[in-house]
């Protein structure tokens, strides 16, 4: 694939969470991404879950700065952000901590529990959006509540939330139930971004091309390519999204 892509959600920042364990592995992941046609990578480490360093924001800042100086074998642009695990004080945290938001703008990745619903989620996200922030729901196809209640995802999207699906989900690497949900969300125009959610250099690698090709079979090339080009670019630049989506409620 000759497309120049943006992978906005990765765990490449080394030795912070359950992603890259070392700088060497992180460099290897960057090389994999570059070979796949990715030229910009979002560094979105876990916050409030799976971190090794007690969510120390000062330490995280120093990790970002150290990575910016790391030697790389291929040219790559990096954008800072985080994958923020849901909590009741989200609006206050986002206001106080620009580093939790993609490139310091108004968009941020929100992680929800995989196996159970969050009480008062709509009210929480309404408060967040009222504060001027836009949540990007990380991989809802891997969340049981959305697979069982796709209408809830539709409600959140119509409120203003964005949705990111994982490239490997579209290719069936997380199982048939997850793939079925990801494809169904695509058909309903509930997906805005495809990202790798890469965690290592062996299985969960930073590749997008296969997922884009699978998405194109469902929504066409214009939308599929937009999910790894113009949409993540608009998010990085804190701009509005192109008018390509008209979400439909599930049956």
Please, could you describe this protein's structure?
The protein is an alpha/beta fold. It has 11 helices and 9 strands. The strands form 2 sheets. A 6-stranded parallel beta sheet has the order 3-5-6-7-8-9, sandwiched between helices. A 3-stranded parallel beta sheet has the order 1-2-4, with helices on both faces. The mean pLDDT is 95.
Strand order within the widest beta sheet: 3-5-6-7-8-9
Strand content: 15-25%
What's the SSE pattern?
Answer: EHEEHEEHEHEHHEHHEHHH
The helix count comes to 11
Oligomer: single chain
Largest sheet: 6 strands, parallel
Structural class: alpha/beta
Give the helix level as a range of percent.
Answer: 25-40%
Spans with pLDDT under 50 lasting ≥5 residues? none
Roughly what is the average pLDDT, rounded to an integer? 95
How many strand segments?
Answer: 9
Radius of gyration: 17 Å
> In angstroms, what separates the terminal alpha carbons?
35 Å
The global form is: globular
Characteristic terms for this protein:
251 residues, alpha/beta, six-stranded parallel β-sheet, three-stranded parallel β-sheet, 9 strands, 39% helix, 16% strand, globular
Task: Provide a concise account of the structure shown.
The chain is of the alpha/beta class and 251 residues long. The protein is built from eleven helices and nine strands. It is globular.
